[in-house]
Design a protein that fits this description.
This protein is of the alpha+beta class. It has a single domain (4-220), classed as Jelly Rolls (Sandwich). Helix content is 16%, strand content 31%. It has helices spanning 4-7, 37-45, 68-85, 206-209; strands at residues 17-21, 25-30, 50-51, 58-62, 92-93, 96-97, 103-111, 132-137, 146-151, 171-177, 183-188, 193-195, 212-220. The strands form three sheets. It has an eight-stranded antiparallel β-sheet, with helices on one face. The protein has a three-stranded antiparallel β-sheet with strand order 10-9-12, with no helix packed on it. The longest helix is centred in the middle third of the chain and has 18 residues, at 68-85. The N and C termini lie far apart (35 Å). The mean pLDDT is 93.
């Protein structure tokens, strides 16, 4: 593994592209985001993970403090939001159009809760407490992307079978972000969404030994 000072260096050339998925969900995607993504993954998994303080179905770990390349990566992501995303998307904050976001917080997250052990709110799509959110997908193996939904039932109930799926009756799937390894995806946190958690891995010990890992960015107005 490279020295910490180099691990979070960005790729030499970054090409952000703006898309509207399913004609409904505006996203900003950057493929091949980190120059050394395998080192980012290894360093992230060395962090001290603990229970999430809210209803995230897994564990969270703080990002390393004082790392200059990580700080530069956060600055790049924040600038991309203000330069390439907000001018295209009319997001309201306190009744006014949001034109600038000054702060971003980053951490790492793993999903490892067995589908049978989910609390009721974890079995339905959710919205984030911030208007914009972003992920870097850090799995070579298939561990699912991000699903977006629209509510179609007046009083939706949680899916008793586990994580939200495209076939639910109360929420209709509208868009999906493909979890390409080392892809940064910036999306609206106020659109109902969920991690795409499916497959045998989430029901076996592989959910601990090789978990779904993402780096998260929360943009704070």
């Amino acid at each position: 593994m490279r020295p910490d000072i180099d691990i979070f260096a960005l790729a030499a050339t970054l090409g952000p592209r703006f898309e509207v998925l399913g004609d409904k969900v505006p996203v900003l995607l950057v493929d091949d985001f980190y120059a050394y993504p395998d080192d980012v993954r290894a360093r992230a998994l060395q962090q001290s993970f603990g229970p999430a303080p809210y209803l995230y179905p897994g564990r969270l770990a703080p990002a390393p403090r004082g790392n200059p390349t990580l700080e530069s990566a956060c600055d790049w992501v924040l600038n991309a939001v203000n330069r390439d995303y907000l001018p295209r998307v009319p997001i309201l904050s306190r009744g006014e159009k949001l034109t600038h976001i000054p702060n971003v917080h980053t951490d790492f997250a793993v999903v490892d809760v067995h589908p049978d052990d989910l609390a009721a709110p974890q079995r339905a799509p959710h919205v984030d407490p911030v208007p914009l959110f972003a992920l870097v997908y850090l799995n070579h193996e298939e561990r699912g992307g991000t699903l977006f939904f629209e509510q179609v039932a007046e009083n939706p109930a949680a899916d008793s079978k586990g994580y939200p799926t495209p076939g639910g009756q109360d929420f209709r799937l509208t868009a999906r972000i493909e979890p390409k390894f080392n892809r940064l995806a910036i999306y609206p946190g106020f659109v109902p969404h969920s991690g795409e958690i499916a497959g045998d891995w989430i029901r076996t010990d592989e959910r601990f030994s090789n978990p779904r890992l993402t780096q998260r960015f929360a943009f704070v107005p």
